[in-house]
């Protein structure tokens, strides 16, 4: 009887474990669709659509974007408390992104994953190519009648800051607003005991990637290197190719910083006090750099005796009360914004 859930309270069974995204959605009573998007530089992206069975598709579309070495499934792994399911249950048309190179988006028009050229991208290219293609596709599929609300976590915020700062006209056309959960940008104040080891880690990055390659979702070496660069220099800047190549690409020996002051859409940020990767100081720095008329910064949860870490934005026993409640207030406010352009 040890392995029988009827007789042993320590024995459990979760049908979502090792299941497919489609089956996970069905397990919790939601409709699931798989869509495919091609970027201008040839990458094939897989995006998921999750809808409540009893809800109309004529609802506000929301795009969720995951962090590094993660995937869209990260928004579906907390059962009924999962962000994708919570918002779908509240009537929203949920779209879940998978950036280039992760488990679900490995296709390319002419490059194989065994070709090093395939992996020659960082989060810069994800923001520059993946996001615009995804926004355009979703808007086309939803009938061109609604702008999108974007919700990102960690690197899912990084890529949106790049997109909204470098392609602000495109962002104004397709986005109602951007909600950033634990946004990774300059990372100047990230709290970690291994900061002195960063120069060494940067040299050992190829060995580190062997370990990372066994994670369920993939990413590129260049993404990791770019984040290490931001941690070392404490600036939110383009990829550093070395002074010679920087001169060719940027007409400067140092990489330019992303122009956060050019962002014009509403930006609302949430941070946790126990987040060792994205500190309050870094989020406050972003807030002060932004000049958009509508912006906010808020700690989660409000009860400062309880402190969210980086993962709690996806996995937390009381996430509905601590995060989803203030999140829904912002979503509802953005939802009623005038969509005409």
From TrEMBL:
All residue ranges annotated as the AB hydrolase-1 domain in the record: 61-184
Identify one Pfam family in the record. Answer: Abhydrolase_1
**Record GO biological process:** lipid catabolic process
- InterPro entries annotated for this entry? AB_hydrolase_1 (IPR000073), AB_hydrolase_fold (IPR029058)
Identify the SUPFAM superfamilies for this entry. Answer: alpha/beta-Hydrolases
Q: Does the keyword Lipid metabolism apply?
A: yes
* Keywords on record: Lipid degradation, Lipid metabolism
Which Gene3D superfamilies does its entry note?
alpha/beta hydrolase
What is the protein name stated in its UniProt record? Answer: Gastric triacylglycerol lipase
């Amino acid at each position: 009887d040890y392995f029988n859930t009827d007789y042993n309270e320590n024995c459990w069974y979760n049908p979502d474990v090792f299941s497919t995204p489609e089956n996970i959605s069905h397990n919790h009573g939601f409709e699931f669709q798989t869509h495919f998007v091609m970027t201008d530089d040839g990458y094939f992206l897989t995006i998921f659509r999750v809808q409540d069975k009893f809800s109309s598709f004529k609802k506000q579309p929301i795009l969720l974007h995951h962090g590094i070495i993660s995937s869209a499934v990260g928004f579906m792994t907390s059962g009924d408390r999962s962000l994708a399911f919570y918002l779908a249950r509240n009537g929203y048309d949920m779209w879940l992104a998978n950036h280039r190179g992760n488990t679900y988006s490995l296709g390319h028009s002419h490059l194989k994953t065994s070709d090093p050229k395939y992996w020659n991208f960082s989060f810069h290219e994800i923001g520059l190519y993946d996001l615009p293609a995804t926004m355009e596709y979703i808007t086309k599929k939803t009938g061109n009648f609604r702008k999108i609300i974007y919700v990102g976590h960690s690197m899912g915020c990084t890529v949106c800051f790049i997109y909204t700062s470098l392609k602000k006209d495109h962002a104004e056309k397709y986005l109602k607003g951007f909600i950033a959960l634990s946004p990774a940008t300059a990372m100047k104040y990230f709290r970690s005991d291994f900061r002195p080891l960063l120069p060494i880690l940067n040299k050992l990055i190829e060995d580190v990637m062997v370990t990372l390659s066994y994670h369920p979702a993939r990413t590129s070496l260049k993404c990791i290197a770019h984040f290490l660069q931001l941690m070392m220099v404490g600036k939110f800047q383009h990829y550093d190719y070395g002074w010679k190549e920087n001169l060719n690409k940027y007409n400067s020996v140092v990489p330019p910083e992303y122009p956060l002051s050019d962002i014009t859409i509403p930006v609302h940020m949430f941070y946790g006090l126990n987040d060792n990767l994205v500190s309050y100081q870094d989020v406050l720095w972003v807030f002060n750099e932004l000049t958009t008329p509508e912006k906010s910064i808020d700690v989660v949860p409000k009860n400062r005796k309880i402190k969210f870490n980086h993962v709690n934005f996806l996995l937390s026993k009381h996430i509905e009360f601590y995060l989803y409640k203030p999140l829904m207030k912002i979503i509802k406010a953005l939802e009623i914004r005038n969509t005409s352009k």
